[in-house]
Amino acid sequence: MTRDWLARIAGAGDLAALEAERVAALGKQGAVTALLKTLGGMSPEERQVRGPAIHGLREAVTAAIAARKTALDDAELERRLASETIDVTLPVDSGARGTVHPVSQVMDELAEIFADLGFAVATGPEIEDQWHNFTALNMPETHPARAMHDTFYLRAGEGEEAKVLRTHTSPVQIRTMQSQEPPIRIIAPGRTYRSDSDATHTPMFHQVEGLVIDRGIHMGHLKWTLETFLKAYFERDDIVLRLRPSYFPFTEPSAEVDVGYTIQNGRRVLGGSERWMELLGSGMVHPRVIAACGLDPDEWQGFAFGCGIDRLAMLKYGMDDLRAFFDGDVRWLKHYGFGA
Ligand code: PHE
């Protein structure tokens, strides 16, 4: 009897068959259960004789079921391990891949072009104090240009002056003149912020600042540098610039720089001098700005310019809506030739 049960349990081919054997032996209606029930109707003497065998049978069957279950579980695990191995030699589809953003691309191009002209890249904080963003740039508190900048002010602690999100990259001029000895030749690309939003303005945008401080610097150096930069950037020798008198508190004289273009097949094509488009602001660094940085304006002169990087990217790669720059849509990037 015991040997029959043990043989059947050992022969159960899977967990379902094993469960069927368990029910047949130990279930409510099971054969072993039935034998156990017979003990109740026996005389004490008979129970003493037959009891150990019947209990022994139940224990042997229980142990056999547990052993078989372990064996079946192990076999199942082995089978899964064998079937679920990964073939690392199979070719993979890596799916969508990230790509360099046009703004980063242009920043890299600018760094390369200006490196050839001997300019280093400088940086400054995006959360700036009002002295660096305005005051040192010849914009005292009462200056109307301060209101014109649509500035984001940060909440200030008791008795502290509010910091601002820098409204332009010009505070990097100040920080560079404070921390470096002239001669200075730097560009400072980075994020800038103004409370403004439409197809050509986003609250966060990018500028690149240029600054040269040396002895005997004049407007001719400024014009040559901008021409050389823009010809290299747009990869065209026929780029023509027009300097228009303008006003910035931190440059004197100041010039707005326009670039010539024509319309071909309904599209703007840079080059020539048929039409003009405003591109950047520039001028000779104001003596007061040089003095505010602790330098002697009689000894040191310089020029500076500030240019929208997003604008530069749009012109070179043909994008027309600035807001799309910051949507992070890979289809938009691909459309303009970025990424695979
Ligand atoms: N900071 C000016 C702006 O944001 C641009 C500029 C920079 C003009 C340097 C002159 C010199 O409009």
List keywords for this structure.
12 helices; 41% helix; alpha+beta; single chain; 340 residues
Task: Note down, in words, how this protein is organized.
By secondary structure, the protein is an alpha+beta fold. The protein has helices at 2-10, 15-26, 31-38, 44-83, 102-116, 130-133, 144-148, 171-179, 219-234, 287-292, 309-317, 330-335; strands spanning 120-121, 127-128, 164-165, 184-193, 204-214, 241-248, 251-264, 267-270, 275-285, 301-308. Helix 2 (15-26) packs antiparallel against helix 4 (44-83), helix 3 (31-38) runs antiparallel to helix 4 (44-83) and helix 5 packs across helix 11 (309-317). The longest helix is centred in the first third of the chain and has 40 residues, at 44-83. It starts with a helix and ends in a 5-residue tail after the last helix. The mean pLDDT is 92. The structure holds phenylalanine (PHE). Phenylalanine binds next to strand 9 and strand 10.
Shape: elongated
**Which ions and ligands are bound to the chains?**
phenylalanine
What is the average per-residue confidence, as pLDDT, rounded to a whole number?
Answer: 92
Helix and strand sequence: HHHHHEEHHEHEEHEEEEHEHH
**Main β-sheet description:** 8 strands, mixed
Q: Mind telling me the C-alpha Rg?
A: 41 Å
Distance between the termini: 74 Å
What structural class should be given to the helix and strand makeup?
alpha+beta
Percent helix among the residues? 40-55%
Roughly what fraction of the amino acids lie in strands? 15-25%
Oligomer: single chain
**Total DSSP E strands:** 10
Q: pLDDT below 50 for ≥5 consecutive residues: which ranges? A: none
Number of helices: 12
Keywords: Aminoacyl-tRNA synthetase, ATP-binding, Cytoplasm, Ligase, Magnesium, Metal-binding, Nucleotide-binding, Protein biosynthesis
Subcellular location: Cytoplasm
Subunit structure: Tetramer of two alpha and two beta subunits.
Family: Belongs to the class-II aminoacyl-tRNA synthetase family. Phe-tRNA synthetase alpha subunit type 1 subfamily.
